[in-house]
Prior knowledge:
Elements: E1 48-49, E2 60-61, H1 64-76, E3 78-87, E4 97-105, E5 108-112, H2 121-126, E6 131-134, H3 137-146, E7 153-156, H4 157-163, H5 171-179, E8 181-182, H6 199-210, H7 212-225, H8 229-241, H9 264-284, H10 288-291, H11 294-303, H12 308-312, H13 320-324, H14 326-338, H15 361-364, H16 366-386, H17 390-393, H18 396-404, H19 412-421, H20 426-445
Parallel strand pairs: 1-8, 2-5, 3-6, 6-7
Antiparallel strand pairs: 3-4, 4-5
Helix pairs in contact: 4-7, 5-7, 9-11, 9-14, 16-18, 16-20, 19-20
Amino acid sequence: MSEPVGVPGGERASTPSEPVGVPGGERASTPSEPVGVASGEREETSSVPLLEPREGLPDLVVTADALAVATERLARGSGPVAVDAERASGFRYGHRAFLVQLRRHGAGTVLIDPVACPDLSGIDAALAGAESVLHAAGQDLPCLADLGFRPRQLFDTELAGRLLGYPRVGLGTLVEEVLGLVLEKTHSAADWSTRPLPAEWLRYAALDVEVLVELRDALAAQLTEQGKTAWAEQEFAAILAAPPAGRRPDPWRRTSGIHRVRSRRGLAIVRELWSQRDQIAMRRDISPGRILPDAAIVEAARSAPTTLDELGKLAGFTGRGARRYGADWLRAIRRARSLPDDQLPESSAPPGDGPPPAHRWAERDPVAARRLVAVRAAVAALADASHLPTENLLAPDAVRRLAWQPPDPLTADAVAAQLSGYGARTWQVEITAVPIAMALDRLIEKGEA
């Protein structure tokens, strides 16, 4: 559309002190009121539904001209920019964005159709100096990067909520708990590849960024109050610095229910069917599970059908999508059946560079198993004292690696160096290194390690 996008008539976006999506001009609680964990329990107040964007629903950006207008408006804005993306997980192949939402003080809300406007490098340049506020940033940053938008500064409201000790950190829950507003989450699992996008969906998407900066400000104040600002800054920097996720080795091994397949020949069938399904899904741009469910792959691997008739009688192969590719499934099964034994997959995934699964430690290395119990207990106690989840204080993988092969000689400095090598942030090392070293020392003194 060629009409201006964002704030109709160039109106200024309202500030946190103005009414926010509340009928009749009622004001919701603001970050200056007692909120969340940092200030104790928030006074019981009735939550207010967030029904409409402050400036009304903006036009969807679908042309280069409209994108240029939106980019200029965002560049003229001030302060952090709220960012969100809607994908079509479960409907389309991959995890690309089908809608991008941005909101900035002085610019209003911008909704962009990345199918029509797939290059957001101009917005990336315009917002290079701005902090981007996202919720669960790790989910959206990859698809935003595919469009050319790569934030340099980040505030992740979900991660901030975890560091502050909130028991539930979904966006809707945090907005209600901290700001006293209720977000409508009806369309969170919608097929956002739908075109045209219904106005009701666009309104939902606009509201997802409506108060994201206000939420950021409230959580930032609580981080400061709890002395966790530096923690959060290090965590946000680590998210931005993380390399793109690579393809997992043997991704077919993640097929749901694969533990029911007992033979190597059956695993070969899983592998061939998974690969065939993935090729079809990629070609048709459809989520693999909508073509053939994992349960059907497992059933075929267990029964190894030899004819289309046998295949068609299996649960999961009766749907139209599965029947359409019956010949492909049968060929995949036949390929697996014809493989020589030395080309069959191993019963378990090849060992990585880390320790074995923890449930095998007691049998394989009882001493290491005792170390793991001691280290886990130390980290859990520290996390409880800091009011945050254990996994946010120290990644479970780092705990396992350290317990499996602790430094020798065992000193706090050596533990710190090892944790840093596993990717632990400075604040995590400062809190955990000495207590972990002491816990392992106690095991040695008892003759248990």
